[in-house]
Amino acid sequence: MSILVDSNTRLVVQGITGREGSFQTRRCVEYGTKVVAGVTPGRGGETAEGVPVFNTVHEAVDQTGANCSLIFVPAPAAADAILEAADAGIAVIICITEGIPTQDMLTVRPYLQPQGVRLVGPNCPGVISPGQARVGIMPGDVFTPGNVGVVSRSGTLVYEAVAQLTELGIGQSTCVGVGGDPIVGTTPVEAIRLFDADSDTSAVVFVGEIGGVFEQETADYIANHMSKPVIAFIAGSTAPPGRRMGHAGAIIAGASGTAQAKKEALAAAGAAIVDSPADIGAVTQRVLRERGLL
Fold first, then answer.
1. Torsion angle, CA of 116/120/122/126, rounded to 10 degrees?
2. Among the four 64, 156, 205, 289, which has the fewest Cβ within 10 Å?
3. Given this model, what pLDDT does residue 259 score?
């Protein structure tokens, strides 16, 4: 009942000895995630939060069988950390780091694609499969296992959407924060495609925002391929054109980047549109009942 991370995830944390890395490692361990290794160059042989630390990801993989990486490396070195994880054979890489130069991502994304490596982020809250694995910074206590997938460009709205679903007794299969940068490792449509192929996910909640064309790409997939209901909310309805609103990718440049254009595209594709973030849970509940899924 999950995508990307599950009970078989064996996690290595790159940047584990930093303040945020050590704190979030502790939270992941407390949640039940199998954190098997950490990496900080020059700190090999030490332990952090009870986890063995290695100098390189290759060493960590060879000695612990790690298959997923969580990155808290500072922005100037984060792209290299992603590439190191990929070269070590890590299949799923989740990069929390904010502020990675767009130019770096122009190199990283095409390098990873031919290898079949799945990157989530950067500038994201991570991925959580409730009851199985927490890989990132999401507050685990608002999540509950179930069959609704959640994809969001906004980290904060992931928590809001999930809290509403959980309060209504609607559990989640996996929740993916794809990140708010203009270039991300996994786009919303790529995440939704994974949920569409997951036999234990019955519906998907999608939280988009202004800027770019990710929502239009998602609408095209929904219209032509999606076999499951999608409930969509677009943040940023009142944002002025040309001004960045929070995320680097949340800037309206042309009519296609507006919240209204995105809503119209998703509605035309058959998604159920939520007009207020306070109604995400209620609309999802209604759609599930209408489809006989609740």
1. -150
2. 289
3. 87
Structure-token pair, residue 268? 């035309």
Provide CB contacts within 8 A for 219, sequence distance 6+: 262, 265, 266, 268, 269, 271
Can 58 be counted among the known catalytic residues? no
Q: Could you give the C-alpha distances from 251 to 62, 79, 280, in angstroms and in order?
A: 43, 24, 23
Backbone φ and ψ for 228, nearest 5 degrees, come out as -125, 155
Partner residues linked to 230 by β-bridges: 204
Per residue in 63-74, is it b (16+ CB within 10 Å) or e — as a string? ebebbbbbbbbe
CB 195 within 8 A of CB 201: yes
Which position among 10, 34, 118, 247 bears the catalytic label?
247
| Cα 153 from Cα 121, distance rounded (Å) | 10
In 33-125, DSSP assigns E strands to: 34-39, 47-48, 51-54, 68-71, 92-95, 118-120
DSSP string, 215-249: HHHHHHHHHHT--S-EEEEEE-TTPPTT---SSTT
Which amino acid, 16?
A: I
Cβ partners under 8 Å of residue 243, min gap 6: 251, 252
CA distance 125 to 136: 6
Cα–Cα distance measured from residue 234 to residue 209, given in angstroms and rounded to the nearest whole number: 5
pTM of the model: 0.93
Is the CB of residue 24 less than 8 Å from the CB of residue 14? no
Amino acid at 99: G
Cα distances (angstroms) measured from residue 78 to each of 65, 73, 98, 254, 270: 22, 5, 9, 31, 38
Q: How far apart are CA 192 and CA 201, in angstroms?
A: 10
